[in-house]
C-alpha cells in the first residue's frame, strides 16, 4: 500500500515536470535559456523535439499499459541531456539532473499505482 502511495506521488511529480519542462519550448524563450541550449549544442528544432518528446513521455506514464515505455523514454531523454551537459563542461547542470533521472527509474521499479486496480461502476 505504501509503495502505491509513493509511486503515485512520484508519478504525479514526474508527469508535472515532464509537461512543464516540455511546454517551455512553446513559450518565448529567455536569452539565458537560449544561451544554455546553445552551450549544450541544442538547436531550435532539436529543442522543440525534446519538448514534444518530454510531454509525450509524461503522458505515456499516466497509462498503465504504456507506463514502462514512458518512463524509459523520459529516463533516456534526461540521460541525453546530462551527456550533452557533460560534453559542454556544464557539470552543475548534469548533477542537478540526477534526481530527475532517478524518478522514472524508481517508478519502473515500483510500478504503476493503478496497475492491478479494477474500477466497478
Number of domain modules:
1
Assembly type of the chains comes to single chain
Please write the string of helix (H) and strand (E) elements.
Answer: HHHHHH
Largest sheet descriptor? none
Percent in helix: over 70%
Main structural class: mainly alpha
How would the global form be characterised? elongated
Strand content: under 5%
**Number of helical stretches of at least 4 residues:** 6
**Poorly predicted spans:** none
The number of strands is: 0
State the end-to-end distance: 23 Å
Average residue-wise pLDDT: 89
Radius of gyration: 16 Å
Describe this structure in words.
Keywords: Membrane, Transmembrane, Transmembrane helix. This protein has one domain. It is 74% helix and 0% strand. It is built from six helices and no strands. It is elongated. The protein is an all-alpha fold.
Give the SSE layout:
Layout: H1 2-23, H2 31-39, H3 44-62, H4 67-87, H5 91-96, H6 98-110
Helix pairs in contact: 1-3, 1-6, 3-4, 4-6
Keywords for this structure?
121 residues, mainly alpha
Compact description:
This is DoxX family protein. The chain crosses the membrane at residues 46-70, 91-111. The protein contains 6 helices and no strands.
Amino acid at each position: 500500500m505504501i509503495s502505491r502511495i509513493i509511486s503515485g506521488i512520484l508519478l504525479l511529480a514526474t508527469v508535472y515536470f515532464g509537461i512543464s519542462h516540455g511546454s517551455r519550448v512553446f513559450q518565448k524563450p529567455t536569452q539565458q535559456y537560449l544561451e544554455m541550449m546553445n552551450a549544450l549544442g541544442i538547436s531550435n528544432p532539436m529543442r522543440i523535439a525534446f519538448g514534444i518528446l518530454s510531454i509525450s513521455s509524461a503522458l505515456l506514464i499516466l497509462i498503465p499499459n504504456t507506463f514502462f515505455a514512458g518512463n524509459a523514454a523520459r529516463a533516456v531523454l534526461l540521460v541525453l541531456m546530462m551527456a550533452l551537459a557533460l560534453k559542454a563542461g556544464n557539470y552543475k547542470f548534469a548533477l542537478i539532473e540526477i534526481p530527475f533521472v532517478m524518478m522514472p527509474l524508481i517508478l519502473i521499479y515500483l510500478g504503476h499505482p493503478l496497475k492491478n486496480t479494477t474500477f466497478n461502476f
